[in-house]
Amino acid sequence: MYKKAFIYDGETFPVLPREEQEAFFRNMEKAIIYSLEKRKLLTASDREQSIRFLELPGRLLKQMQPHKEGEKSDDGQQI
Q1: How many helices and strands (H and E) does the chain possess?
Q2: pLDDT one-digit tens code per residue, 28-39
Q3: C-alpha span between 7 and 60 (Å, rounded)
Q4: Number of C-alpha atoms within 13 angstroms, CB side, residue 26?
Q5: Alpha-carbon distances, residue 32 vs 73, 77, 79 (angstroms)
Q6: Rounded-to-integer distance, Cα 49 and Cα 65, Å
Q7: Cα 53 to chain center, whole Å?
Q8: 67 near 73, Cβ under 8 Å?
């Protein structure tokens, strides 16, 4: 496995549209799931179930919504 180094040169980061952000994070999560299966930490059925969960429509959009002041999180704590 090759190591990758990323160097921050001070420029601003490009802003990705929400759809591209969602696709980026979904692909990262899938890569992690496949890596866990390759290392024998997940079974094939666990992988399939996890990927089905990842592909639920709107799953990431709900998590990425900005919170309003005074709103409570899913576990009941005030944000």
Answers
A1: 3, 0
A2: 999 999 999 999
A3: 28
A4: 17
A5: 26, 29, 29
A6: 25
A7: 12
A8: yes
Measured in degrees and rounded to the nearest 5, phi and psi for residue 2 equal -90, 140
Eight-state DSSP code of residue 16: P
The string of pLDDT tens digits covering residues 55-68 is 887 666 555 555 56
Structure tokens at 48: 């399939």
Read off φ and ψ for residue 72, nearest 5 degrees: -100, 145
Q: Burial, 25: exposed, middle or buried (Cβ in 10 Å; 0-12, 13-18, 19+)?
A: middle
Q: How many Cα atoms within 13 Å fall on the side-chain side of residue 33? A: 18
| Residue in 22, 51, 23, 25 with CA at minimum distance from that of residue 37 | 51
Q: What is the 8-class DSSP label of residue 17?
A: P
